């Protein structure tokens, strides 16, 4: 079974803005996707890829616009790819850029996906696929991705460039004519989503090469079930202390299956949760904005005394002494 994919919360920003502009309810959209609205204030946090797909579907339903994914990504273009856009703009040629995107996308933007280049005789296929077994929202996510693929190629071939055709998976595509207008080409149904264009265009030079290819402000996303569990626990802390059953449910697993798979990776749920709680506690204490009792409540403790005892066991310091040490203040 493939790892559960992760992606950065910044991918939801344009979706949320579109819902706002259409007069829709963000609370309802995020509620349907099972996600907290606080994610909009923390764009560098990681979420499950399946949650992003659910959010896109919820936004389409909220504002009644099946072409929304294509509208968003074609309007945003390469700027919506964040660090991937930097990789593209620093490549010598279109072909080099697409090969680089294939390497860095699962490291910096989203895991459990493939974005890459395949040559088929005189044709080039710049494709995108979700490798995790997710069906809900898959096609809408592919349409969203096509607009970003289009923006990548247009950096080299110009804003008016159009592919020969685009491909999405599935048996039916809603709002096909509108999506075709937005992408500037015919859209057909096939086994894998992507853009098709003449292979000789891969030699096109970068008209405005900038920056160094290796640099990125984003740390690699990482992989593995333990990583997903840690991020889900951290995300759930925005609302309440999560349970192992709740986290297992979010991953589509039973409690025992989750425990067994974590054990196979040499870890346990309790230890992962402890590390997340320590990290969140230290972040809140270092920010120096909330009283210690409130921080304890944020982390799911009944009162400051329970939190202080737990923090002392974790670090060897009380929360107050830890905070004072960060300020350079007294030890006592």
TrEMBL record:
Pfam families: Arabinose_bd, HTH_18. Gene3D superfamilies: Homeodomain-like. The keyword Transmembrane helix does not apply. GO terms for molecular function: DNA-binding transcription factor activity; transcription cis-regulatory region binding. GO terms for cellular component: cytosol. Keywords: DNA-binding, Transcription, Transcription regulation. InterPro entries: AraC-type_N (IPR032687), Homeodomain-like_sf (IPR009057), HTH_AraC (IPR018060). Residues 227-325 form the HTH araC/xylS-type domain. SMART domains: HTH_ARAC. Signal peptide: none annotated. This is AraC-type DNA-binding protein. It comes from Methylorubrum salsuginis. The lineage of its organism: Bacteria, Pseudomonadati, Pseudomonadota, Alphaproteobacteria, Hyphomicrobiales.
